[in-house]
């Protein structure tokens, strides 16, 4: 297992804090259900992964969700939403990181972000159908949706929402990446040697 330097640990902590604050600045997108909110908290996790490796990105995703759970709580009493946010963020960050490592260009980053968005949307749809939505109904003690109702919710709400969220994050991250590309690559090279 990779051991992080003090600089990396401090950076991961700082990026986790920034990610947590960005998670609080969430907003709904009108055509989708009100409980689906867009935020930009995956961007610091992606930066951490690009500089310090994939484990750093996963840690930022984990720490931001732990912070949010302890600070804001959960309607279900258990962190179902936080676990699903962690999984979604990880599913977005890891494919993006691995594609970019193969194609170290702006086009490669764009391709990685689109691939991460699609993988996140598809896998989260499957997880929502089999695990997440049933967990919400169980812990909230509400009547379970029928299989057709769940499929409709996923096909018309969750799947397109995650695609839109991924594309919005892609656009915002590419604007940031255009300015920070050289710095991120320099930091990543330095940390891989050090």
TrEMBL record:
Molecular function GO labels: riboflavin transmembrane transporter activity
Cell compartment(s), UniProt: Cell membrane
GO cellular component, one term: plasma membrane
Main location per the UniProt record: membrane
UniProtKB keywords: Cell membrane, Membrane, Transmembrane, Transmembrane helix, Transport
Membrane topology: Multi-pass membrane protein
Sequence similarity: Belongs to the prokaryotic riboflavin transporter (P-RFT) (TC 2.A.87) family.
Protein's UniProt name: Riboflavin transporter
């Amino acid at each position: 297992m990779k051991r992080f330097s003090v600089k990396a640990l401090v950076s991961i902590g700082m990026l986790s804090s920034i990610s947590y604050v960005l998670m609080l600045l969430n907003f709904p997108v009108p055509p989708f259900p009100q409980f689906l909110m867009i935020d930009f908290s995956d961007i610091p996790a992606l930066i951490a992964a690009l500089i310090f490796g994939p484990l750093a990105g996963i840690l930022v995703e984990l720490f931001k969700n732990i912070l949010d759970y302890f600070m804001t709580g959960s309607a279900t009493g258990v962190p179902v939403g936080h676990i699903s946010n962690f999984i979604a963020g990880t599913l977005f960050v890891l494919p993006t990181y691995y594609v970019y490592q193969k194609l170290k260009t702006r086009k490669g980053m764009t391709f990685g972000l689109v691939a991460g968005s699609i993988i996140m949307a598809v896998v989260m749809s499957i997880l929502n159908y089999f695990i997440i939505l049933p967990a919400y109904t169980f812990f909230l003690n509400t009547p379970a949706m029928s299989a057709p109702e769940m499929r409709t919710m996923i096909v018309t709400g969750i799947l397109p929402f995650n695609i839109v969220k991924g594309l919005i994050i892609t656009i915002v991250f590419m604007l940031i990446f255009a300015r920070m590309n050289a710095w991120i690559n320099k930091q990543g090279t330095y940390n891989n040697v050090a």
